Amino acid sequence: MSKIYVLGAGMVGSAMAIDLASKHEVILSDVNAEALSKAVNREPSLHTAIVDVTNVDHLAEHVKDADLVLSAVPGFLGFETLKNIIQLKKNVVDISFFPENAFELDELAKENNITAIVDCGVAPGMDNVILGYYNETHQLESFECLVGGLPKIKKWPFCYKAPFSPVDVIEEYTRPARYVENGELITRPPLTDCEFIEFDKVGTLESFNSDGLRSIIYTMPHIKNRKEKTLRYPGHVEYVRVLKESGFFNTKPTLGNNLSPLDVTSKILFDEWKLGEMEEELTVMRVTLVGVDKKTNKKEEIVFDLHDEFDVKTKTSSMARTTGYTATAAVNMFLEGLVKKTGILPPELVGSSKPCYDYFFSYLAERGVVYKEKIIAID
Q1: Could you tell me whether strands 203-209 and 281-293 are parallel, antiparallel, or unpaired per DSSP bridges?
Q2: Nearest Cα to Cα of residue 189 among 170, 209, 171, 169
Q3: Rounded to whole angstroms, how far apart are CA atoms 111 and 321?
Q4: pLDDT digits over 265-306, tens only?
Q5: What is the overall mean pLDDT for the chain?
Q6: What does the alpha-carbon distance between residue 282 and residue 276 come to, in Å, rounded to a whole number?
Q7: Which residue(s) pair with 290 in the sheet?
Q8: 3-121+320-369 belongs to CATH 3.40.50.720
Q9: N or C: which end of the chain has fewer CB within 10 A?
Q10: Do domains 3-121+320-369 and 126-318 have the same CATH topology?
Q11: DSSP string, 166-189
Q12: Using one digit for the tens of pLDDT, what is the confidence trace for 352-378?
């Protein structure tokens, strides 16, 4: 039995800790005692600790005996937390959506003989795994990922609920979106290039530019077209753009008590977007690859579709399941010796190994997260 330290007891962090507790000794930590208490109520075998990850000495004392650390802290804490974990010589799986380039820590990780599997959620995460595997079997020319977490019940005006911090959601709406077209890196404002796309069981959704390619920008330079877009119910983008263009996301402190407009907006949207613990939601993702099969020399379109919903039996949100179980799969495959490389490893580098690729899909399927694959011949 391995000892795993989970940093962050939010909706996803708690789901991961509970999943891992069936096989391992798990210590779940957070600065929020109430969040820890809720997790223990669901899984009494969990150990808990109040930990401030910004206090490096405190963090070091807590993780010193861990066989692996699983980081699920908010994005603005992610990079420094990952750096500190590596410096503490602890192998780590990370799902924090931080804006920095994780490869800046690659040399540090290798110097410390550490494996750091980063961006290991649903997207970024499983879309990278799929890309990594098919990059080995096909000469790819394009990759596209469309993904979104949505409430089952649409509530006007935003028709949206966040299964994680609204601050991280707003980050998607303010961070410049990068994609690759005809081999050229292009940067566009987020919330642009909107398209309406049909999905089974959901109907019409709206896609827009967001900065989700991340490591794929650097690891797959030979693929001429690479793009990631976020999905929402139609109308959501217009309302968010109104807020953005009106200054509600500005970060400069211009209000009383040294507050910024974003501070106030985040507080308001936290209440508006907060997903209830038993509120049903769903995750929709479509990954599309086009390339030539290296064995048959035939051009194909490979499409993976995911439609996952709140698990009524385990009372686990879809976003926690699809994101968290990808990460716990990575934790288990590392502890079982399937991942041997050191350094910063985004999921496309892990998924390039068929045993790892198969492990991800088998692990998720056992938990009811099922991807449907179809391959279409292109004449």
Answers
A1: unpaired
A2: 209
A3: 34
A4: 888 888 888 887 788 999 999 999 999 999 999 999 999 999
A5: 94
A6: 13
A7: 142, 301
A8: yes
A9: C
A10: no
A11: HHHHHHHHHSPEEEEETTEEEEE-
A12: 999 999 999 999 999 999 999 999 999
Instruction: Report whether 190 contacts 210 (CB < 8 A).
Output: yes
Residue pair 93/356 in contact (Cβ under 8 Å)? The answer is no
First to last CA, the chain: 52
Are 223 and 141 in contact by the 8 Å Cβ rule? The answer is yes
How far apart, in whole angstroms, are the C-alpha atoms of residue 102 and residue 77? Answer: 13
Q: How many other C-beta atoms are found inside a 10 Å radius of the C-beta of residue 210? A: 26
Domain segments of the chain: what residues? 3-121+320-369, 126-318
The top-level CATH class assigned to 126-318 is: alpha beta
Looking at residue 156, its amino acid is W
Whether 11 and 162 have beta carbons less than 8 Å apart is answered as no
Q: Is 242 helix (H, G, I), strand (E, B) or coil?
A: helix
Does pLDDT of 204 surpass 70? yes
Length of the chain measured in residues: 379
At what angle are helices 11-20 and 33-42 packed, to 10 degrees?
Answer: 40
Determine the average pLDDT of the residues in 5-23.
96
Residue 199 exposed, middle or buried by CB count within 10 Å (0-12, 13-18, 19+): middle
The helix (run of H) or strand (run of E) holding residue 82 is: helix 75-87
Residues 109, 87 contacting (CB under 8 angstroms): no
Residue closest to 208 by CA, chosen among 181, 246, 245, 235: 235
Instruction: Look at residue 164 in the predicted model and tell me its pLDDT.
Output: 64
Q: Where are the beta strands (DSSP E) in 79-174?
A: 92-94, 115-117, 138-151
Task: With residue 306 as reference, give the H or E element that holds it.
Answer: strand 299-309
User: Cα separations (Å) of 51 from 21, 25, 33, 141?
Assistant: 19, 18, 10, 45
**Which structure tokens are listed for 266?**
């985040």
| 47-69 per-position pLDDT tens digit | 999 999 999 999 999 999 999 99
Structure tokens at 97: 């959506």
Nearest to 133 by CA among 293, 352, 347, 359: 352
Q: Which two tokens stand for residue 368?
A: 């009811």
Residue type, position 337, single letter: G
> Residue 166: pLDDT band by 50, 70, 90 thresholds?
low
